[in-house]
Predict the structure of LysR family transcriptional regulator.
Amino acid sequence: MEWTVEQLRQFVATADSGSFSAAARSLGKAQSAVSTAVGMLEVDLGVVLFDRSHRNAQLTDAGRVLLLEARELLRQAEQLDQRAQALSGGADAELSMAIDEALPYTAVASLLREIAQRYPALELLLLNGTATEVADYVAQGRAGMALQIDRGPVQQHFEQRHVGTVPQGVFVAVDHPLADGQAVSLQALAQHRQLLMHTEDVHERAYSPRVWRSDSFYNIADMVADKLGWAVLPVNIAHYEGNRQALREVPCPALALPRLSVRMLWRQGAQRSQTAQYVETRFGQLLAAI
């Protein structure tokens, strides 16, 4: 098997143009060079690719089958060349990233589309989970970095950088007694069960004597919709698909809820790649647009 990529390119060009002379013009080569290259390819493959008994070069049955293979090999060769050029230019070969499931889907989806366009040769590993899980992925070495809603102080073996913020609010079911559009007091909230986010080493403040906890904002949103209690949720979670119709935001001036901070985590001492720095900057911009 001594055929070359250049021979395949000339074979495909001849098949596409319909003649050796037209292929030669499109490739900027002499007709004899193209004809010789295709002939050598036929010898190497052991099959006749073109029927030369006609004025124009017509593919044989074997030629039609092998043309498909040649096109695919050329596509792979071009991809290999592009990837090699990107890597030689300093681009990252791969990126492993863990993303908090509570982050806005629209911002995450936009980020991934832009990564695909900006770094077409990049091999991406994407892990999703709760805030605790994505931090664990970084600690275990399964992910090089994580985007996470800030749930309190990080462990000593992490480094962090603030990326942006997301809004939060108090939500109840649409037919909950508090869902009348009026502002509520802390005393009114305390009369109903509170659903709290559970994170190790972080104790969310409870305003009600009755409390249920979960480690997933999506699970909490489902429980709110089932009238099991009220909760403070990221607005994007409350507005996600079916939640938009099932939940109602309740103004509570006494809480004065700040926007939730979003951060990037990575292992202490690890060198952040060029791509990771781009992700930090661009995701912050996407969050600011929400």
The chain has three domains: 5-88, 94-165+261-288, 168-255. The chain has a mean pLDDT of 90.
